[in-house]
Amino acid sequence: MLQLRNITFSCRDPERLAEFWGALLDYEVAAAGDSWLATDPRGEGTRLLFNRMEKSETIEVPIHLDVNVPDREMELNRILELGGRLVETRSDSIGNFSETWTVMRDPEGNGFCIQTPPKTQHRYIGNVTFSCAEPRQLGAFWAEALGWPEEEPEEGFMQQLRDAGVDERELSGFYVTRPPGGGRPRFLFQRREKSRPASYPMHLDFRTDDREAEVERLERIGAAVVETKEGASLTFTILRDPDGNPFCVG
Amino acid sequence: MVRLQHFTFSCDDPGRVSEFWAALLGYERTAAGSSWLATDPQGEDVTLLFNKMPKSQTLEVPIHLDINVPDREAALDRVLQLGGSLVVTKSFEIGALGDSTTIMRDPEGNGFCLEDPPNTERAHIWNVTFACAEPRELGRFWAFALGWLDEDIDESIFQIFRDAGVGEPDISGFHLVKAPDGGRPRFYFQRREKSRPESYPMHLDLATDDREAEVERLVRAGASVVETKQGTNVTFTILRDPEGNPFCVG
To answer: B80 to chain A: which residues are within 8 Å by CB?
Structure first.
């Protein structure tokens, strides 16, 4: 099985970006060779890794982070002071259901969302979000890859959507899987296509006890191997999920 | 130059889809062989053509219509009664600017948007909207093709964006072109990537006095030719714009 090791950013200026995300999430940042790491001092949140690496200049990419914060409005201003930029504040409503979030960019243009679900005490990464054509299919791949269960929407919620006149096809427009026991981050899949750049500015790094067996298993469920590389301290394989999103297993 | 002749839907059931759109827009319907036409009795707005044609089942495609209505909430209910369905009502806010749009689908799943700007007296097609990677470049191609003009955006809007913390490239994330006489519809280009299906469920039909010369001119401007076909009473060429959106010139 895979364990999420890092969320990795390809950067022009790893130190600058590590500082931004460190301040945003209350993480501690430290240099690691040419790269930078940002780590949660509470030991809860996923570690972020910042590598100096080529990336496509595309700004609409199929993967982003949703950050939960205690106060969205206040956070918007704080992020602008940290060197982030605003895209827009969005609200979606369907019948009586509604939610609001703010789309922002980090100093190198990576999009992310901030939102304030009830009882948010501190800042943390709530979701790794994948934009895709078929959320249920891609979500099922990742649930199997990670050994995570699907977080099924409550039937009452689905009924609320139907009552508001929502098309049946929209009801398969999202999928959520999360670590057993309610761990974080969740992986959220939503039907919203984006461009697929040659070099993604963000990807996920996974750890496993048996890389070769794991790569074989992932290929069987729909992943494709790009190449296997010898890193400084470990061998890792770059793969693509069934929608072409790159990830590493080492 | 080319003129906008029809906005064309590929349908499983042209009769059913044309009924829906005619009722929504107050258009008149006429059969034309196995196709249906829906025309504005006031002669102001673009004619819709409904052909029985295979199409990809993709829901999120890079082209849609924005419909202005006197009352968005009332129109939402009416669309549901006519056999359409709801996706979501979406609001955005950037500093002092804000707006709400309801996204809906016609009976065959074609997405469209409802808005109710002030002084809208009747339902009409306001924008043909292209979701694209490069709004300015694609907008300029279409302005060139149609002999239309860029619509100047009030500088004060950009200032509101900047003051709210919006940076490049989001500030240049949209572009508008319209006919010199200010007629409808406008073409609206927004940076928002979608999937590019094999067979688009919607496309533009353009008329011209000299098809061959016009095709040559459009290819020089960045279009590519798919094929030339002999219709029942007209020869037409299928092309793709620089971002791959299909259109016909006949």
So the answer is: 165
